[in-house]
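[09:14] KT: can someone run the structure on this one? pasting the chain below
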Amino acid sequence: MFNYEVEDERGYDAETIFRQEYFFYIVDQAISSMETRFKQLESYKDDFGFLFRIGKLTKMADSDLLKHCMDLQNRLTDRDSKDIDALDLYAELIIFRSLVYENQTLLEVLSIVKNSNGSFPNISVALRILLTIPVTSASAERSFFKLKIIKNYLRNRISQEQLTGLSIISIEKAISDKINYDD
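[09:31] RB: done, structure tokens below
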């Protein structure tokens, strides 16, 4: 063996094995998930960002507002079906921006839109979509992450039915903690 070649040092104590096989994997998954979420949040900001502070539309140039409306229409279009019409949204926002204050929240603005008796249908649709888009799907991701942990640990030693049962118990931990197993 050459003097610069050294065998890989692999720790065999429990702490080192845990760190190498579980901790680093979990940290890597967490970092990857956070990067994905921030990219997703940036995408939503690019599409809906001009509506986050709808009261500041009075300071926005009409050409910029039209561009944002066109981009939002493209984002909310699926083949022949579109949720909003960009030109109608633009016209509604031109009128609507005189009805709102700079510091109003989106929920307050949506309340104004609802009380307008259907005068601003495109704004209503855009705001409802904006307010219902989940920033993350943490509960679903947690479920799959726990399933991965269980499956990696047990590998092929367990049947699919047992694996399903264990994953449900793990996912619904709050409920399973309340169960009296003596009964």
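[09:33] KT: thanks! The first strand starts at residue 77 and ends at 78.
[09:34] RB: yep, looked fine to me
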